[in-house]
Specification:
This protein is an alpha+beta fold. A hairpin with an 8-residue loop joins strand 13 and strand 14. The longest helix is centred in the middle third of the chain and has 21 residues.
Length: 206
């Protein structure tokens, strides 16, 4: 099943708003925000395009284990095919000014080579070609969908939004198409972005 991008609307829940801090009145450069994150490394932080900072909740055991299943398979594929894999602690500085930390991400050798040695030590100033967002039980689906659209608009080529509770995956592509996969008895494909990569969704059944 395919959905046009325009049908997904931005909805910000009260829970989401309670985790926002409005820092837009301060001129926080990219380097200053990176230093702010390092000084508060006990917290997981993201920055929205408008300058507000989002405090991300720590995951529970099931979410953490599921995330490790994904990054493990992605790393195994990477060792044979190249590129760079990142976990949920890595920040990516996107074109719209936001800083995001997907649960898993892959960057090609070609794109990685464009990053200076200095920038590789900070929030990476690129959009990964591939990302995964793994929803927790308290996450809002509409907010997660809006975030995925933002990834695509900022240059991500392929993204998976995985909802373990509903056993559903939304696949986002650079051409604007969104596919829905229902049931964790299926296998996801990396398509043309990660040729030959497959992930068995049954690994997420806990």
């Amino acid at each position: 099943m395919t959905y046009p991008v325009a049908e997904i609307q931005q909805i910000i829940s009260e829970e989401h708003q309670s985790r926002l801090i409005d820092m837009s009145m301060f001129e926080m450069t990219d380097d200053v925000f990176f230093a702010f994150c390092q000084a508060n490394d006990h917290l997981k932080l993201e920055r929205n395009p408008d300058g507000t900072i989002l405090f991300m909740a720590l995951t529970g055991g099931i979410s953490g284990e599921n995330n490790s299943e994904i990054t493990t398979d992605l790393n195994i594929w990477k060792r044979r095919n190249g590129g760079h894999v990142y976990d949920s602690s890595t920040g990516f500085r996107l074109v719209d000014g936001s800083v995001r930390s997907p649960d898993a991400a892959w960057v090609s050798e070609e794109k990685y080579a464009q990053i200076s040695e200095e920038d590789r030590r900070k929030h990476l100033p690129i959009a990964p070609e591939f990302i995964v967002e793994l929803m927790s039980e308290t996450d809002s689906l509409k907010e997660a969908q809006n975030k995925m659209l933002s990834y695509i608009e900022n240059g991500v080529l392929l993204g998976w939004l995985i909802n373990p509770k509903m056993e559903t995956v939304y696949i986002y592509r650079a051409d604007g198409t969104i596919s829905k996969v229902e049931g964790f008895s299926q296998t996801l494909s990396g398509e043309q972005v990660l040729a030959g990569f497959e992930f068995d969704l049954s690994l997420l059944k806990k």
